């Protein structure tokens, strides 16, 4: 299968039943982590053609010819969010952070002047067990201002 | 109290923040050797059965399969998987694989193969025959069923480490009764008598990184386990015990952890990887999927708590009896201590009793084993006791906040139900007052239900609760810290405390930095490797800040003292003449010079200038120079190691408040506001403490409203995924507001107590009371679903 | 997780149909969200994501949605936000999360006919039509009642009849499956302009209850009651539907809630619009 990963052309053998997540980890994108097996937690969020999707459920073979982006591919935007998260203590265990950050960056592109409710609805699929979400909300407020 | 801190009590980012968020390979699953075998576990489909035969021959023929182990292949002796200091009260009741399976998902065979597909294929070909037995699924019937022959642990090599009142023929793991005074007499004298029974269900810790570990032989032939664990050193001891090895032959490494919340205070995956490496010599990796993590890991223990409470007309609690029945599940990890905390950490808050009693019993059943989960019994007890006190407030027509203020223990007072410890710091009254202001209690709280209507069929109500926890286990938990000065003029700190994402690496560095007068980034903190880290019991029991923190402060002080002494030698003066500003050692300006400045009639500014000028001319020594000197072979290497064990376990406190909105047509509950005011002594890291508290409150809200463990009639866990076991999303808990009322704990590092667990306890009683305050619906079992509220309203 | 021998991205519906008929183990993959929960072993997975079936086409009298339109497409489509009182775009909003809805497809939802489906409940009230490759279009109501067949759904078509629609659901937590869902669509009389209405020209309704927890069904008695302005009768009627218990709710609670949701939906914009 050929696809573009973070701006680089990749040519890799992919099994018919392999989820995109596994392929991305094979390509050394360790930011792509699995949290559930039922498409519910949002931890494995990456973009395919700029749309956030769950890489644990996305058939890798479907990405043929498409553009896949992980946090490794958007260092500048990611750093901005990471810095805000770190300064708020909102990283905690950090396991869900890369997926969350990918959703946040996509949201920033998709929504203009969203309300708090719209932000929460957009990000509802990104679960976090450590933080209680309030510190993330403080980060998002700073990110929009 | 001097709280003029520079590094502690500040907002400091976690030292590992960018690596964990940015995708650096720092978690267990990122570090697995390429040639590791994939380990899969064949699990029992029955809740209770004898394993008659495990036929492996056909499965062994699958290409890529390297080994298949069943109970005949593993050591016979029993062990505990609990991560607790040794010797403990956990029974030796499990083997790596056993000939009896005791819950749906109990391991039957371990399969190791070159890849996952081969392992999965082989799993289908292993043929197991069982003799199925009737399972004990209802913990309230565990004793009764034992009489009928359903004994969960009939084995003859079961070992009680100490007398805990167990009676296996009755499915009883442990029981105890303590108290003071004549309960019945005092209770009968009371104006208000309450007798209430509450139920909490098992809850999933639901950390985002599931259980996982891998093992290999290191360069010196030690069986090495890399694990996502909170108990690095306990795992070393437990694995050695499980496989009959010397601890010298086992090494455990803890990388970054994707959350634990207590789940990883038990050994879970480690023996499966280790036994495969031990048998085959090959690296082996076992990673539980979410279903396994939920069904075959460990959960919060389900409880039935009966509270009998007597109070006088003014709301003074005179008699209090907490009676807990705990569902242990199939294996007894942590159960004895968890049961104890349901009383030890609830009864002391009602300090004016004439009689109190705490009775508890823990019973085995054929369900997923219980384990440690943030709050550890205090949570279950708090729900029951605080709900009862709120009911007292309603009956007596008193304000629930006033009742608490009337009954709380005072500083200097011994707490008999809390091991007789003397309370040395407590800002709980301030927490209550601040919380009351934050949630606008005085204006919003109406004692009668249906007082605040906000829409057709919609009413709001307020509720509150108070709680305490501990800070480590007194005289048992031991933590050690080593700090050394390196030749580059920086410090390296070795700790055995296992940062699970909460940031202990950072807060311990803050404490050392405060003593050593430097920034956090001058201190390198090692992750945990039993080969190089000093002993620490691990991260649990709300102990890291207090116990490891105390060791850190003492080690840093000892190192500072050694550095001062050495600097004095190098500078050729007495140690009392040396000053240190974090970077540089220099000789203090002497009395002689100060006198001559005074005689010259200099003003303060000129004096300072003159003093600095004089000092700069003195010989001084930089930290780097001292570091270089300490490795030149002529002088002592500068290092300090201090071990600490708490002589007390000072309780942190929380006053928690909730506002909810209830729809009387459907029973739906909407959380409006959660407020928590925390006394954890001095806050070491303002960011991390706040986020800990917010996270704990969210988990508490999940327990109160959404998180339901459902077990089907055949013993199967129905809620085995995030699809069926719903932890709160950001839409479910719209607002959590936390404030701190800092007391100063004299025995704590910089006055600190713990924060990790105490923050989970109050939401469930506060929310349940708010529901009752809103619409009068009384809930006695968690979670409070819309249907339960609807039924309570209908049946009123 | 499923296993599969081959993943084939097809370039025409014919190719998809041919491959589908070749072996019983071959299967069309929509979003794949539900399939991955199973442990089935497939031959060829047939990917129809490059057949242009991801379009929402708006015509004067109907809206045509491709089978590979995602739930997120439906949620954010400007036309659908305004059409059918926004019920179609609203009903998907609570499903798991944005990423999930970026993947789950309309065709997959309809093919699966799951009891908990929010969108199937609304489509049933909208009297949607299922378009399958090489077959006659069929009303969703009939499709739901028929056994699942090996076929390629290409489109879902909804007539624009000026319906006023209201969707309601109850969930234990916001992103959970509904423990019951409900949709009511009110259709204006055909000759609404006539000043003299007869009985046959009364407003008509479609009343659908899903997540009972069985799949969505119409309640025709309730529809008749509403046409006669008999709300109490309609409430009683929906409560006679078949409800059962699962871990999200008991049959008894669902039965009561069906009545509550009907009242809410009816008293809301449906009747006032």
Question: TL;DR?
Answer:
The complex is a heterotrimer of chains A (145), B (796) and C (273). Chain A has 145 residues and is of the alpha+beta class. Chain A is built from five helices and five strands; from the N terminus they run E-E-H-E-E-E-H-H-H-H.
CATH topology heading of the largest domain in chain A = Ubiquitin-like (UB roll)
The overall strand count of chain B is 30
Q: What kind of oligomer do you see? A: heterotrimer
Average pLDDT reading of chain B: 95
Query: Order of strands side by side in the largest beta sheet of chain A?
Result: 2-1-5-3-4
Give the largest interface pair and sizes.
Answer: A-B, 50 and 56 residues
| Helicity level of chain B | 25-40%
In terms of per-residue confidence, which ranges of chain A show pLDDT below 50 for 5 or more consecutive residues?
A: none
CATH-level-2 architecture of the largest domain in chain A: Roll
The largest sheet of chain B has its strands arranged as 3-5-1-12-9-10-11-23
Rg over alpha carbons of chain A = 15 Å
Kindly report how far apart the N and C termini of chain B lie: 53 Å
- Domain count of chain B, please report it: 3
Please describe what this structure looks like.
The complex is a heterotrimer of chains A (145), B (796) and C (273). With 145 residues, chain A is of the alpha+beta class. Chain A has 2 domains: 2-72, Ubiquitin-like (UB roll) (Roll), CATH 3.10.20.30; 74-144, DNA polymerase, domain 1. Chain A has helices spanning 20-26, 75-88, 97-110, 116-123, 134-144; strands spanning 2-5, 8-11, 45-48, 51-54, 67-69. In chain A, strands 2-1-5-3-4 form a 5-stranded mixed beta sheet, covered by helices on one side. In chain A, helix 2 (75-88) packs across helix 3 (97-110) and helix 2 crosses helix 5 (134-144). The N and C termini of chain A lie far apart (42 Å). The model of chain A has no long low-confidence stretch (mean pLDDT 97). In chain B, a hairpin with a 5-residue loop joins strand 13 (303-311) and strand 14 (317-329). Chain B has 3 domains: 35-135 and 211-287, Aldehyde Oxidoreductase, domain 3, CATH 3.90.1170; 303-410 and 422-473 and 650-794, Aldehyde Oxidoreductase, domain 4, CATH 3.30.365.10; 474-645, 2-Layer Sandwich (Aldehyde Oxidoreductase, domain 4), CATH 3.30.365.10. In chain B, helix 9 (335-344) packs parallel to helix 10, helix 16 (591-599) packs antiparallel against helix 17 and helix 19 (686-705) packs across helix 20. Chain B is globular, with a radius of gyration of 29 Å. Chain B has 21 helices and 30 strands. In chain B, 29% of the residues lie in helices and 23% in strands. With 796 residues, chain B is an alpha+beta fold. With 273 residues, chain C is an alpha+beta fold. Chain C has 2 domains: 3-47, no CATH class; 56-189 and 200-272, 2-Layer Sandwich (Enolase-like, domain 1), CATH 3.30.390.50. Helix content of chain C is 33%, strand content 24%. Chain C has helices spanning 13-22, 71-76, 78-82, 87-91, 98-101, 106-112, 118-125, 140-145, 220-227, 231-238, 251-272, and strands at residues 3-9, 27-29, 41-47, 56-58, 62-66, 129-132, 138-139, 153-159, 164-171, 178-187, 204-210, 217-218. In chain C, strand 11 (204-210) and strand 12 form a beta hairpin. The N and C termini of chain C lie far apart (46 Å). The chains are: A alpha+beta (145), B alpha+beta (796), C alpha+beta (273). Chains in contact: A-B, A-C, B-C. At the A-B interface, helix 2, helix 3, helix 4 and helix 5 of A face helix 1 and helix 19 of B.
